[in-house]
Amino acid sequence: MDTSFNSSFWAHQEDPGRALDELTAQIPLRRRAEPDEMIGLLLFLASSASSYITGQALVVDGGYTSV
Q1: CA distance 28 to 4
Q2: pLDDT exceeding 90 applies to what percent of the chain?
Q3: pTM score, two decimals?
Q4: Mean pLDDT in the chain?
Q5: What are the sequence ranges of the domains in the chain?
Q6: Confidence at residue 28, expressed as pLDDT on a 0 to 100 scale
Q7: d(CA 15, CA 12)
Q8: Are 35 and 1 in contact (CB under 8 A)?
Q9: What is the rounded average pLDDT of the residues 15-26?
Q10: Are 6 and 35 in contact (CB under 8 A)?
Q11: CA distances from 16 to 10, 12, 19, 24, 28 (A)
Q12: Taking phi first (over 0 means left), then psi (-120 to 50 degrees means alpha), and beta for anything else, what does residue 63 get?
């Protein structure tokens, strides 16, 4: 996800731009998630519509783990 939390990671890369390009090339959507893209999932999980969901791992990664 594209947030300032990751800044220290990118700062320690020899070539941050190249490292980011290599990462995004591995994501089927070819970009990192924006924080606003989590809103729908969070609203769903906080609502009664998800009341019967228990113990699940919901992967929100743009398809990264599917390839």
Answers
A1: 23
A2: 91
A3: 0.76
A4: 94
A5: 1-49
A6: 96
A7: 9
A8: yes
A9: 95
A10: no
A11: 5, 8, 5, 12, 20
A12: left
